[in-house]
Specification:
mainly alpha; disordered C terminus; membrane; Peptidoglycan/LPS O-acetylase OafA/YrhL; transmembrane; transmembrane helix
Amino acid sequence: MRNKFTTLWIWLLICPLAFDYKAGLDDGSHAMQIIMTLPVLGAGLILWLIAPSFTQRSRFRSIITAGTVATVAGSIVAQLMQDNDFGNYLRTLLPFGLFLLGYLAACRPWRGDRLEQFEKALFWSMALSLVFSFAYGMATSGGPLDDVRYRIISATFLGLQGVLLHQFVIAKRFTMINLALFLGTILIELLSVTRSLLVGTVLLFVFATWLSAPSARHLAKAGMRAVLTGLLLAAMTAGAAMFFPDVADHWAQRIYASKETTSGMDPTTITRLAEMKDQYDQVTSTPSALIAGKGYGAVYHYSPDYLPDLAGQISKKDFYAIREFAAGHNFWVYQFFAGGLLFGLWMPLAILLALGLGGIAYRVWRRRAPDLLYLPVMGRSLLLLAGLPAMSIGGNPLGPRYSGLVFGVALGLLVATYTRLSYAMQERDAKRRAQQGVPKKRRPGTPAPAPSVTPVTPVTPVTPVAMPTPVSAHAPALNEGRDPTGTMSRFTSA
């Protein structure tokens, strides 16, 4: 049944948290964050209830769903066993819960116009988050660059870059808005003096190049274009350094900061290693913690093993005074710390499985059927979700609420389009084999079909004529390769 408010629920799900400023750094009230989160929870629940359902099972979709649900639901077991502070538990779990909610709402066989609204809401909300984070950070900090750079980075910074790289590298569409946004992200990267962001951008560019080349010959050509683009960006960066000498000095300090420590590593790397070492020591201290984890919201410190490496950078008193309960900077280690072997590893493995199988399938389908319906949606979802492991280089992408929601929606869109396209390709292969007179392949152990009996009175079969699917005037981006036989509709209840 068509719901006339579905578009409203989609935008209410994605957009409010785009203005979620970093209130975790403040000691004031969090009422505004609560007000922004409640509409998101309500809209996500409504979308989950009114969404169409798949009519056929998918092993891939079942595995991803089970892994995501097990991680969030299993946190209750660790909370009951460890008895962490309940407020800290809820605050830390909320982004992971929003990730699950976004996944459940988006992993459905939505129609083309609904998918267009999902993609529009994701793109414009990430663009607004980019501008708002930069403006809010500059307005509230008001200090030197060392203070400003921590507040001007959006929670979905690399996710937006992934979507823009899809448009440039794969779709080869260049618009003024996309070019302006991408140049804005490069400028913010330079001002933030954050090496992990530059590394993430490079990895996303490599991933987009790999997706755009379905064969070795195309990959060689795409590699040459990537090298030329990299040289152009390097020239732009050098030019920007000449115009902003203060930023260049800060980059030089960050690059050569390792020379100021006794271990030869920069202080940021040492503190990250100290944090991960303490989390690992805590989770492996007892069998119960190793199995079920220490729980979300558990307090962790810096490992004393790294105190000598920070000599001259931090005092001993300040080092031992550090107590944190928020999601750790390393996404992969924190998942093991919070959920243990039983509940902590399923979500990271599900994300990697979706990116791996989705990327391989996308390249194959793009080579065999480049006009396949919803293939561009799958490509954009892949590069948006790829921003999650790219952001995990420098921090936990599921620490902020907004990024947790966006990456959950990206995973849902990826799994849903993968499921629908795999059905469509199976149907296309079956039609091709039928036209060529090749018998359909049977699974091992399946009995051969019974021979057909010729009827006494011949009956002329009537071949039904498939009605053409109308082209939507409201979703031009999704009309690429529209299947006039309506193959996709057979596998959904939409």
